[in-house]
Amino acid sequence: MKVSDILRVKNGDKGLTLFTITPEHLLAGAMQMMVDYDIGSLVVMSHGKLAGMLTFREVISAIVRNGGVVGDITVSNAMDPKPLMCSPETELDEVRRMMLIQHARYMPVLDQQMLMGVISFYDVAKTVVDSQNFENQMLKAYIRDWPSEEEKTG
Predict the structure, then answer these.
(1) What is the pLDDT of residues 53-76, one digit of tens each?
(2) pTM score
């Protein structure tokens, strides 16, 4: 399974909504946006290119560095300028490995330099569980339809 499969299922028929912000925005505005849309990350874009990633982890770290005050911190001073990334063709097992090693909860998906979406650790875990459930159902159906000894020799 590939990242493109996760994006296809995640976006479904509701369409793709990407939440982005520029490095110049104030962190307080980014935090408000994350709360308003109930999202854990924002992709930071500058001149149409990925500039970084802002998650609650970076938000909290920036506030702590600033003495517990948001103040006039900008997104560029809080974001991760080199986030873990993948492409739509990246295999799910590779994404899981990368996210676990780097403790990443969110990963932008880029096709060349075009932002295709963001996948979360939750998206990856849900995909794995759904896949395992499907396999279990198929195995149970196969076993249920297994021919008896009488049917085999008859």
Answers:
(1) 999 999 999 999 999 999 999 999
(2) 0.80
